[in-house]
Design a protein that fits this description.
single chain; alpha/beta; TIM Barrel; Lyase, Ornithine Decarboxylase, Chain A, domain 1; 2 domains; seven-stranded parallel β-sheet; six-stranded antiparallel beta barrel; 10 helices; 27% helix; elongated; lyase; D-serine ammonia-lyase activity
C-alpha cells in the first residue's frame, strides 16, 4: 500500500563510494538516514567516524567507535551520564565559555572532548570569538567545526566553501594550537579545502534540493516516496497524491520551485502539501487515477524520521533504527 519510502541500495552504495573518493576524509552525518546498515557501508568505504545530531543517535551508532555530536548540547547530569556510558570516543559541540563551564560543572566524561563551533556565514549557532572558548576548554579541546549551511543556495557552493576555509584557518591561528578542522555539507563537500574532514549527510540519498542546486542528477536519487494518484483535476492541470507532509516533510526554501519533484517528469512539481495530500501540477498529459508515481522529497532528512522502515527496490526492508531519537 502507498505511500511508502523506497530505497535503491545499489544507488546508495554508488553515492557512498563517490563521496569517499573526493579526497578529504569523510565523517558522514547519519541523521540523514538513521540506518545502521548504511552507516556500516560508509565506514567500510573509509569514513573516519560518524557525525550525529543527538545523544540518542549516538547511542544507536555507538558501534562506530568515533562519534561527533555536531550540535551545541547544553549539559545536564543525565546527558553526561549517557555519553559516559558510550564505548565510543565522543566529541561534542560548544560555542561559548558558558557551555564549557556548564560541562565542567556536571562532569565531562573521560571519553568526551570539545569541538568549538564557528559561524562561517550560515548565521545559526557558532562562535565569532573562539579564543575565550578555547581557553576555557583547555586540553579537552580537540578541534574546530562549522556548518556552511549557506551553501544551500543556487551558485553558493564555492563561496560557502571558501568562507568555511577562511573562518576555520583564522580561528586556529588565533587560538595558536594544532586543532582538527571539520567542515563540509553535501552541496559544498567537493569544494572544501583546508579541512581535515567533511561531514556531508544528504548525499547518500540526494533529494530535490540537490537536484535544483545541480549537485546531483536524477540518476543519483536513491530514495523516493511511492504514491498513488487518488484524484485528478483536468480543469486545473493537477493530480492529488496520497503522500502529504506526514511522509514527505514540508521543507521548501525560498529558491525551490516546489515542495517535491516527480521522478521521470522533469517539469512536474508538488505545488501544495496537506497532511495526507500532495498537489502535483503537470504541464502535459495528467497521470491516470490509480497510477503510482515516485516522489523525490525536497529535503530527505525529515522523511526518515517519519517512517519505521524503508522498502528496498530489490526486496526486503531496512529498519530506521534512530527514528525518534531526538534527544
Amino acid at each position: 500500500m502507498t505511500p511508502f519510502v523506497l530505497v535503491d541500495a545499489a544507488r546508495v552504495r554508488e553515492n557512498v563510494t563517490r563521496m569517499a573518493s573526493v579526497g578529504t576524509p569523510a565523517r558522514p552525518h547519519v541523521k540523514t538516514h538513521k540506518i545502521p546498515k548504511i552507516a556500516r557501508m560508509q565506514l567500510d568505504a573509509g569514513a573516519v567516524g560518524l557525525t550525529v545530531a543527538t545523544v540518542g543517535e549516538a547511542e544507536v551508532f555507538d558501534f562506530a567507535g568515533d562519534l561527533f555530536i555536531a550540535y551545541p548540547l547544553w549539559p545536564i547530569p543525565e546527558l553526561a551520564q549517557r555519553l559516559g556510558a558510550l564505548s565510543s570516543r565522543v566529541r561534542v559541540g560548544v560555542d561559548s565559555r558558558e557551555a564549557v563551564h556548564a560541562w565542567q560543572r556536571v562532569g565531562l566524561p573521560d571519553n568526551v572532548e570539545f569541538m568549538i563551533e564557528l559561524d562561517s556565514g550560515h548565521h545559526r549557532s557558532g562562535s565569532i570569538d573562539p579564543v575565550p572558548v578555547a581557553e576555557a576548554a583547555g586540553d579537552r579541546l580537540r578541534g574546530l567545526f562549522t556548518f556552511p549551511g549557506h551553501s544551500y543556495a543556487p551558485g553558493a557552493q564555492v563561496s560557502a566553501a571558501a568562507d568555511e576555509a577562511r573562518v576555520l584557518a583564522a580561528a586556529r591561528d588565533a587560538i595558536g594550537r594544532d586543532l582538527l578542522l571539520s567542515g563540509g555539507s553535501t552541496p559544498s563537500a567537493r569544494e572544501s579545502t583546508g579541512v581535515d574532514e567533511i561531514r556531508p549527510g544528504v548525499y547518500v540519498f540526494n533529494d530535490a534540493q540537490q537536484l535544483e542546486l545541480g549537485t546531483c542528477s536524477e540518476e543519483d536519487i536513491a530514495l523516493v516516496v511511492r504514491a498513488t494518484v487518488v484524484s485528478r483535476r483536468d480543469d486545473l492541470g493537477h493530480v492529488i497524491l496520497d503522500s502529504g507532509s506526514k511522509i514527505l516533510g514540508s521543507d521548501r526554501p525560498a529558491w525551490a520551485t516546489g515542495f517535491a519533484r516527480i521522478r521521470g517528469h522533469a517539469d512536474a512539481r508538488v505545488t501544495a502539501l496537506s497532511e495526507h495530500h500532495a498537489t502535483v501540477t503537470f504541464p502535459g498529459q495528467l497521470p491516470e487515477l490509480g497510477e503510482q508515481l515516485d516522489v523525490i522529497p525536497n529535503h530527505v532528512c525529515p522523511v526518515l524520521n517519519l517512517v519505521d522502515e524503508v522498502q528496498l527496490v530489490d526486496g526486503g526492508t531496512w529498519r530506521v533504527a534512530a527514528r525518534g531519537r531526538n534527544s
